[in-house]
Write a structure and sequence with these properties.
Layout (H helix, E strand, L loop, with lengths): L1 E8 L2 H14 L3 E6 L6 E10 L1 H16 L4 E3 L1 E7 L5 E6 L3 H16 L12 E10 L13 E3 L1 E10 L2 E11 L8
Antiparallel strand pairs: 1-3, 1-9, 2-7, 4-8, 5-6, 6-7, 9-10
Length: 182
């Protein structure tokens, strides 16, 4: 069984901006499980443990979804804590209709294939750290809101390795550019 999810991955520029936010926050944190820079992404749908047959179905969904989705820009927007224990550090994404549309089409395709679909409202964010233990006051990091063009959608596997998560792309597709994004 593989723990799978669909995600959008970042270019080096956005990864650098997110790493900068993490670096600004780290002095204020006693301990945390920080996300590795190469693992930073926007989750579109988390599927959990899936067998080989399901993996094949999921791989079949990616090409048509990506082909029907033009590359679009996202902006970082604020940060906060969330999760069951309020110890998940995240950076949010500004409202982006193209992202919401992609998630809705992905959920519809998963449902049509008889696969599980998360029924909770979609929450666009990037997880920076888990199990965050603050030293005291919380910082006010500077968040660069320069738009980032999202051009790559992937089916990913989540692997546990020495108490650190590793996200392995199993299959990726480039989102086509249109005249507004080229």
């Amino acid at each position: 069984m593989k723990r799978l999810f669909f995600a959008l991955t970042f270019d080096q520029s956005m990864t650098g901006r997110l790493t900068s936010v993490m670096d600004q926050i780290k002095p204020w944190v006693n301990q945390a499980r920080w996300t590795r820079p190469q693992n930073l992404h926007v989750t579109l749908a988390f599927l959990g443990a899936c067998g080989t047959q399901t993996l094949g179905q999921l791989a079949g969904l990616l090409p048509p979804l990506a082909a029907a989705t033009h590359a679009f820009s996202v902006q970082l927007a604020g940060w906060g804590l969330g999760g069951r224990h309020q110890d998940l550090l995240w950076v949010g994404l500004a409202d982006q209709p193209a992202l919401t549309d992609l998630v809705n089409r992905l959920r519809k395709a998963l449902s049509a294939a008889g696969l599980p679909v998360d029924q909770r409202p979609y929450w666009p964010h990037v997880t920076l750290a888990r199990q965050v233990d603050w030293l005291g006051d919380k910082p006010q990091p500077r968040i660069d809101q320069t738009p980032c063009l999202m051009t790559r959608m992937c089916l990913m596997e989540s692997l546990g390795h020495k108490e650190q998560l590793l996200y392995q792309p199993l299959m990726c597709q480039t989102l086509p550019l249109d005249e507004r994004t080229s």
